[in-house]
Amino acid sequence: MAHRSVARSLVALATAGIIAAACGGGGTQPTAAPTGAGGAPAKTAAGTAAGTAAPAAPAAPAAPAAVLNRPVEFVISTNPGGGSDIYARLWISYMEKEKAINTSVLPINKDGGAGAVAFTYVFEKKGDPHYIMVTLNSFWTTIITQKLPYKSTDFTPIAMLAEDPFFLWVSEDSPIKTAQDFVKAAQERAITVSGTGSKQEDEVLFRRIQDEQRTKVFNYVPQTGGGAVATALAGKQGGVEATVNNPSEGLSLYQASPRRIRPVCAFTKESPKEGAFKDLPTCRSQGLPIDDYFIARSVVGPPGLTQAQQDYWADVFKKVSASKDWQDYTKQTAQNSVFRSGAEFKKFIEDFETLHRTIATKNGWLN
After folding, report:
1. How far apart are the first and last CA of the chain?
2. Which residue has the higher pLDDT, 253 or 38?
3. Which of 29, 139, 219, 266 has the smallest count of CB within 10 Å of its CB?
4. What sign has the CA pseudo-torsion 262, 109, 156, 300?
């Protein structure tokens, strides 16, 4: 995998001037200050010279203005059970455990239109920090292929937390044991495969395999989310024989008893070194040389958030990213934990925009 940072209000600290002793009126003489040994002014219990006014303590910094003042909606563009749904709910639980946020966060599923329903919903909340959205690659592909009236770069970048790889999956009793078994079978007949949405990342990967390995045209069956994809494979619904789900989306059925599905290989540069998928062979090592495409697990906000609002949210997700729970989870699911925010994440969004526009053009999805 390729290796991929709350605004603080500043307040001036007021210092009190030293108050000079004033002379009394009416001929009254000023009271002499008590002296200590050697004629030095005696000190009070507080440590200041008697008869001398102590400097005023610096004023405490003012608290930053509250960014959030009501519950937040964490919008999910897929139905329950898919990768985006899993991550949003996990991140909410980590926010609460790490006490990273001062209000409640509600997961809101708005699936439909390959993500367009959720994207439009958040886009219309311009300037409101009480709406954030988890992304997957349809955040780029859907906006591009459906020619929606906004771009991914119009949203406020908050943070990226992981690069989530693709695995090639088959049912537990499939005769396919290696990537080459899959390629050979696909060269001989039209295999039915499934993935999240149409003209999205799963189909992008299958079409790439089709082009590079000169297989028969895949019969691609779209589903509403990664959970539905895994279920379709386990049940061989509509004859589905293979998927390219992410590790987290197939984990429960892989660890089920009896096991329902299994990964054949990982579209990564190296095999996972720990976790549930430790030592899973790379697809490249089995003759299917694709290792440069992944799901960006990240968070964006509506257009027009202020820098303070953007920084607030980036700080929240930095705490989530650094939490032991998240680090343990990414190891278990073979993800590359990487934190990007600010200018770095903004550039990533721009680069992924270019990448997916190129893919869409190559596949004729812009016609």
Report:
1. 32
2. 253
3. 29
4. negative
- Other residues' Cβ atoms within 10 Å of the Cβ of residue 271: 15
pTM: 0.75
Residue entry with tokens 């495409």: 293
Please enumerate, as own/partner, the contacts of 112-117 that have beta carbons within 8 Å and a separation of 24 or more: 113/142, 113/146, 114/138, 114/141, 114/142, 114/146, 114/197, 114/198, 114/199, 114/200, 115/77, 115/78, 115/139, 115/142, 115/197, 115/200, 116/142, 116/143, 116/146, 116/148, 117/77
167-286: CATH class: alpha beta
For the chain, give every residue range classified as CATH 3.40.190.150.
72-164+294-362
Q: Is the pLDDT of residue 172 over 50?
A: yes
Q: How confident is residue 79, by pLDDT bands cut at 50, 70 and 90?
A: confident
